[in-house]
Amino acid sequence: MASSTAPSPQPASGDQPGDPLSAGPELVVRSQGLDKIFPNGFQALTKVDLAVDKGEVVVIMGPSGSGKSTLIRTFNGLETIQGGHLEVLGYHLDADNNQKVVSKIRRHVGMVFQSFNLFPHLSILENVTLAPVWVQKRDRQTVKKDALALLDHVGIREQAHKYPSQLSGGQQQRVAIARALALSPQLMLFDEPTSALDPEKVKEVLETIRALAAEGMTMVVVTHEVGFAREVADRVVFMDEGTIVEEASPQTFFTEPKEERSQLFLSRIL
Amino acid sequence: MAESPRSSPRSRQLLLRIRRGLFASPLDTLITVVLAVVCGGGLWNLFHWAFLQADWAVVLSNVRLYFNGNFPVSQIWRSWSWLGLLGALCILTLMPSRLLPPVVVRLLPLLWVLILPIGLLLLASGLGLEPVKSRFWGGLQLSLLLTLGTILMSLPLGILMALARRSSLPLLRWLTTGYIELMRGMPLIAVLFFGQLMIPLFLPEGWTLNRVLRAVLSLGFFMAAYMAEDVRGGLQSIPKTQLEAARSLGLSPLLTVALVELPQALRTALPALANQCVASMQNTSLLAYLGLIELLGISRSILANPDYLGRHLEVYIWLALLYWAVCILMTSLARRLERTLKVNGHH
Questions:
Q1: What's the whole-model pTM score?
Q2: What's the rounded Cα separation, in Å, for the pair B329 and B333?
Q3: Which residues of B touch A (CB under 8 A)?
Q4: A154 CB contacts (<8 Å, ≥6 apart)?
Q5: Taking CB atoms and an 8 Å limit, are A78 and B248 in contact across chains?
Q6: Chain B residue with minimal CA distance to A183?
Q7: pLDDT class of A2 with cuts at 50, 70, 90
Q8: Phi and psi for B51 in degrees, rounded to 5?
């Protein structure tokens, strides 16, 4: 398995260990030699090296089973790692998967899932206010005001008192984005955010993500949406069989991919 | 089959439907006639017995005993007022919530928890009232007290055990699983006997627990095992993705259980839990065989009175009606709760 270690674009300055979040580290995510082995022995990630800079939008593409989702799920500790080293927002994590570090990371990293995963027993507003009230222990009234502003931002303020099941898929996904943003994250992870949507709902969700990118949010997006990747991504990462095969600007990647596997993949989806 | 013309009056359509449903073929007709004769005959006999042969004095002269047991007559208002409070709470709960002030609606769950201590205070003593020993408690009032006590004890205990059963600590998991299997493997009557005889042995020197409390403890420990299994079923129905969403929002394991898992699990388990609550009510009747004079117990002692010799049928029909009425009330309360929860975010 050729582990093509792509050089990180700029060796960022603010990556001193043990000094989380102070002076705004330029490097948001750095994984070095990351290994993920599932309990059944399947190796989902092999020696993955990836760096994400502050304000960067990285799109990860690749065939299903290539480890793209697994990779971003390690970034907020939803998947443990079995080898290598991970640094997220200045917090260091390795194979011991220290739960204290993981819970600190989660307070600053938002995640949006393919299947929305809203809480069905809570109203839209309650879905958004849950974490700020209970995790950040912020004042209920302020949180509510902020949440309504966020819902307004993603265009569903009118539905604030409805329940997830009463909303369309596109609306639910936009609520999920608002819910993740409510914690004022410094990194947003999107795990195939439009794959479970009807084609006509894909656009509204992508618009929301695009707007977020324009505001300078650091994002890692796993998606199959070529158009989105082309327009929004600063960098496209192509994965296959648990390794990063190619990293390039969208321009280069979609017009003149270097690797044979990338070419094969693109010839199938374009 | 004759086509029913559109313009035919309703009665004619009804007639046609009856004909099609009950008398479509000779066999259908035969079945209909035989069933009608059997049911009609049964009903006729029942009414004949109920109005001409039965002597309802055994019920009518003992209403106080059925409802309040041997509660001292001078203090009987306490027993009636608790039953009245309970009834009022049922009516409040069953009323459409838009007819009630929002404060009352919000207080209802608390009132349901408080009704038990209020009952104990009213019946036993407290509030400067004359103490009434628990052996004078009886009848429907005692049955309801036992039922409420059992539910309020077994539900939290069941939830805790359901959570313990999937704990990551093996010892805790084995202990709860063992406990649940043990309780489910024992007949309730055996548990109740154990409770009455064994609990005093476990108490420190000089401590006593009255029979009612011992009964509630045994019933509660028994029902908790069943409740735990129902809650566990509810917990298992929650998709793993819900937990991932909670974790990725930074919710601690405890908060995830309290805010995401349990609310959903209890909703799913609600019909099964309601079933257990009704069963709890029926189960209290076993305590008649342990000397408690709850509804069945008091009825047995009434039947032992020579004045009412041989009036078993009247008493047991009356009892059946009472138990049935309470259970209907409980199931409507459960359905009401189900509807309220469904309005607040159905899946």
A1: 0.83
A2: 6
A3: 241-242, 244-252, 255, 259-260, 263-264, 267, 344-347
A4: A174, A175, A177, A178, A208
A5: yes
A6: B249
A7: very low
A8: -100, -20
